Amino acid sequence: MDMYNHSWLGRTMTVTASTDSTLVGRQGLVVDETRNTISLVEGENTLVLNKASITFTLGDSDVAIHGAMVGQRPEDRIHRTYRKA
Hints:
85 residues; mainly beta; SH3 type barrels; 6-stranded antiparallel β-sheet; 1 helix
């Protein structure tokens, strides 16, 4: 299943790498996505993360998604073709 082309809303997201080391390991439910950000609910807190500075996984998938590669609106990202690294 190609995680790049599905809606991420309602999925669990885990930050696996970041330019900000305090974000690595953060995990929560995706509640909103814009062109440049992903909003994540972690416990009772909502975090807004810059896509360009994080690498993350969704659900129990092993696919690492580089946020810098998905810097477009969610409705455009779903229909886009991505190269396999």
